[in-house]
């Protein structure tokens, strides 16, 4: 009897595996396919935060923020794990191409895809500064990083996508921990700051405070990534608080269909 029950379960599991590999090509069933891959050690399982806080920052269509839809350039369109999505990249370059900032600061370089695209769409004499944490400093950050940040910190090369591009002379790679970096030479000089470093609550709060200080006295734009992402619940909580409690951040808007938040401060 026990043998029969084992054979039945064995046959059902073979059928289930065949089913997963066949229908796994359809988006609806892809998670089951990935799950099999994680169990076989294909890659680290992404950290999913349950119980995302309600989204308090209003969402608007991209065309509300960029009514004129300027001509823009998209370089390195293919997104890797850790990059903004294609639609998010388009949203960023539309915002950049319409405002034409001259000086931009990015917290969180990764492979340099966003820095490259900002450089390609900003004012022709503009410059991007992009800060990344050296991988060997991952254990010694000033504040606690989020669970899941490590895989984007520990990479073989930062900024690989812009290093040999036509825009490499318009991008300066900076190294350090965003919570401990000396920003003295950059404060009050930026038109645009993109916050996309560590996803922990403390880092989002600290990097936002930094972003505010980096903007020119007449103001500018701050962009954040990952608001409302199911992987970064604490980031969403921090952003909700900033929106709720800091009057200057009331113009924060989430770009429809993305996890990008944009705030113009004047
Ligand atoms: C999600 S990736 C940025 C993606 C990038 N903006 C893009 O799409 O092209 C996050 C980056 O933040 C960096 N980072 C994480 N914690 C940091 C810290 N404390 N200081 C500086 N950079 C940090 C990581 O090394 C990683 O390169």
Supply the key terms.
alpha/beta, Rossmann fold, 9 helices, 8 strands, 35% helix, binds S-adenosylmethionine
Provide structural commentary.
The chain is an alpha/beta fold and 266 residues long. It folds into 2 domains: 2-39; 59-265, Rossmann fold (3-Layer(aba) Sandwich), CATH 3.40.50.150. 35% of the residues lie in helices and 14% in strands. It has helices at 2-23, 30-39, 62-65, 86-99, 113-121, 150-153, 160-163, 201-214, 233-245; strands at residues 59-60, 103-107, 127-132, 171-175, 192-195, 220-225, 253-255, 260-265. The chain has an 8-stranded mixed β-sheet, with helices on both faces. β2, α5 and β3 form a beta-alpha-beta unit. α8 crosses α9. It is elongated. The N and C termini lie far apart (77 Å). The mean pLDDT is 93. Bound molecules: S-adenosylmethionine. S-adenosylmethionine binds at residues 82-84, 107-111, 113-114, 131-133, 141, 145, 149, 152-153, 177-179, 196-198, 203.
Topology (elements, then pairings):
Elements: H1 2-23, H2 30-39, E1 59-60, H3 62-65, H4 86-99, E2 103-107, H5 113-121, E3 127-132, H6 150-153, H7 160-163, E4 171-175, E5 192-195, H8 201-214, E6 220-225, H9 233-245, E7 253-255, E8 260-265
Parallel strand pairs: 1-7, 2-3, 2-5, 3-4, 5-6
Antiparallel strand pairs: 6-8, 7-8
Helix pairs in contact: 4-5, 8-9
The protein binds S-adenosylmethionine (SAM).
Would you summarize the structure shown here?
The chain has helices spanning 2-23, 30-39, 62-65, 86-99, 113-121, 150-153, 160-163, 201-214, 233-245; strands at residues 59-60, 103-107, 127-132, 171-175, 192-195, 220-225, 253-255, 260-265. With 266 residues, the chain is α/β, with parallel strands linked by helices.
